Every structure is written in C-alpha cells, then in structure tokens.
C-alpha cells in the first residue's frame, strides 16, 4: 500500500461566517501537506455530553424528541451541550436531571467521540450513570422531550432493528454492552 | 414521569447563511409544540457513506488522516460524501476504492446514523464490504490518507482504548462485532 504524509494542515487565515446560538461557522484557509492551499468549512461547537443512565432494575432512560434537522422524532440517550468552561461530568449530571428528572449517584466516564470530524469540532463526552434518584430540574423552554424506561437489552435490540439511529446513543450503548 | 408533546416542529421560514463546498448553513424559524416560535441553526449536508472492509484473513482496512476540525490525526473506517443523487452503495464502492485501493465484491447494508441530529441533516449509510481485490481509483487532490490493515479484533481494542474516537467508525465496527 502507498503511504501518504498525514502531518497537520497549517491554518493560514480564518473568515468568520456566522455566530449562532449552538454553532459558529468559519471558513479556514489551510496549507496542505503538499504545500498547496485549500479551504476547510468548520462548524465550531462547544462540545457536549451524553449519558447512559441505568436504574437498579437494569432499565435504561431514553428520551424521545422531534429533531428538526432529521425531520423525525428520534430516540436517544439524554444529552446536552457544555456551557463555557463547564466540567463534562458536572454537565452530565445537570443534563440528566433536566431531561429525565433523575439524579445520578455515580458517574463513570466512557470516553467520547467526534461526531463528524470532517467539518465540526464537536466532541461528545460519554458517561455511565448509576444510583439514580428522582430529582427534577427545569427543562430548557424550547425542549419538548418524552422520557422512556426500557430494559437495557431492549435498547440494544432497538439499535439492531434501526429504531435508534442517533450516532452518540449507539456509540455509548454499544460501549456499555461491551463492558457487561 | 411527565409526558410531553413531541409532535413535529413546523417550519415557518428559512434564512440562507452560507453555501459551501461541504456544508450549507441556514437558520430556520419554527413553530414549537406549545405555539411559541424558535430558531433552529441547520447545517445541510448531502449525506455520506462509511465502510467496514474486511479481507479474507479477517483484517480490517482503516484510514488515518489529519482532521482539521479535530486538530489531530484520526483513525477511521473509509468514508465519503454522497454526490447529488448518488446511490449510497455505489458511493461506498467508489469511496472504498479511492481511499484504500480495494474493490469490494460484496457490500452488505448495516443501516446508518445521524451524526448530530441537533443541528446537522447528515445521515451516514454504513456498509460491510467483503471479497476485496486490489483496484485503485484516484484520490481527491486535497485528501492525504494513510491506509492500515489491522486484525478486526485489534480494531475493537482500539475503540476500548480510546484510539478510535470517530463516531461513525465506532458505530459501524461495534455493529459488525454484534453480528459475528
């Protein structure tokens, strides 16, 4: 097989295009490995967390919400965007409470993922939450979320059958399945 | 648990912000389930494919490339963006050849994933490729990709150890692991 130079692309300049509530868009001029220049469209995102929350009866908390970008209701694990400077584990506890009304007694890191490294900086930190107790926090006022409790193995079957098609949720659940 | 209305958000109007090579950005005004209006920042993407390519000796083809958005070299499965109207399976065969120099005799659908349904329309179609034979196609002139062959189980260990942190790659590889 041929081998290519995969050293870093060198940023030359950056044009801000849009600064929004969730994402910023910039276009960067970069110098490639062969000395040529190219443009990289870059969605800047603050990062996020997602949580596999399992209760004492081995039921998983799932959230269902209408996703405008996907044009459908999607079933996902609880998740949310990091506030500036926020600790990912703290954010995970907060988002779990906001979205499901449950507080985690124990949070274990599951690593994380870049959702689309070709064009967005978003990295999602994944957590496994145990020792759940009811404790509601107010939800964001533009979020409408339905919470479901399903046996953990049923969630795996939902992945196999194409009923869970959200990337972060599949990554997190199949990572947990490998640990069990 | 409380139940919320998760019926579709109704699009009211849309402001185009940027039309680029990979992504388009629009801001949509939507009517929420409670009658209020809100804005949704939307990255329009044509969709993509990614391929778990396994040879006759149970080795997997991985690609390593510098990802400007992630600011690091990442190890991923071969993947690429759909051309307008392109059949995903056809695209998968093309991208596998372009990125790795191997042609698939057999392609099996593994379903797919939305990479970040909170703000991008991108859906990635996943395929399992067998019956590989050498047959190179030219790579895009701004892509610098290093191809690796690793035993399939080593790739799973790379996920467990945080050496593969690309969402689509983890989803596809762990889906295949469940089928074996």
In short:
The structure is a homodimer of 180-residue chains. With 180 residues, the first copy, chain A, is an alpha+beta fold.
Provide keyphrases for this structure.
four-stranded mixed beta sheet; Nucleoside Triphosphate Pyrophosphohydrolase; homodimer; alpha+beta; 2 domains
CATH level 1 name of the largest domain in chain A = Alpha Beta
Uncertain regions of chain A: pLDDT < 50 for 5+ in a row?
none
Shape of chain A: elongated
Radius of gyration of chain A: 19 Å
Give the helix level of chain A as a range of percent. 10-25%
CATH topology of the largest domain in chain A: Nucleoside Triphosphate Pyrophosphohydrolase
Structural class of chain A: alpha+beta
In whole angstroms, the N-to-C terminal distance of chain A is 38 Å
Q: How would you sum up the major sheet of chain A?
A: 4 strands, mixed
Total helix count of chain A?
3
Return the CATH architecture of the largest domain in chain A. Answer: Alpha-Beta Complex
Multimer state: homodimer
Strand content of chain A: 35-45%
Series of secondary-structure elements of chain A, N-terminal to C-terminal: EEEEEEEHEEEHH
Largest interface: A-B, 79 and 80 residues
Tally of extended strands of chain A?
Answer: 10
The CATH homologous superfamily of the largest domain in chain A corresponds to: Nucleoside Triphosphate Pyrophosphohydrolase
Number of domains of chain A: 2
What is the mean pLDDT of chain A? 93
Largest sheet: spatial strand order of chain A: 7-4-9-8
């Amino acid at each position: 097989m041929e081998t290519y130079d995969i050293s870093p692309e060198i940023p030359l300049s950056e044009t801000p295009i849009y600064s929004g509530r969730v994402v910023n868009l910039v276009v960067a001029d970069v110098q490639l490995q062969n000395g040529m220049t190219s443009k990289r469209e870059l969605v800047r995102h603050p990062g996020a967390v997602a949580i596999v929350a399992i209760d004492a009866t081995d039921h998983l908390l799932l959230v269902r919400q209408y996703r405008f970008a996907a044009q459908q209701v999607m079933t996902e694990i609880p998740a949310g965007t990091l506030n500036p400077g926020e600790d990912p584990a703290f954010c995970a506890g907060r988002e779990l409470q906001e979205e499901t009304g449950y507080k985690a007694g124990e949070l274990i890191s599951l690593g994380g993922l870049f959702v689309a490294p070709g064009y967005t900086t978003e990295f999602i930190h994944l957590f496994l939450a145990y020792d759940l107790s009811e404790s509601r926090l107010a939800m964001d006022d533009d979020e409408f979320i339905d919470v479901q409790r399903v046996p953990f193995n049923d969630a795996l079957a939902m992945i196999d059958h194409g009923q869970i098609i959200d990337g972060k949720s599949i990554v997190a659940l199949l990572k947990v399945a490998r640990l069990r």
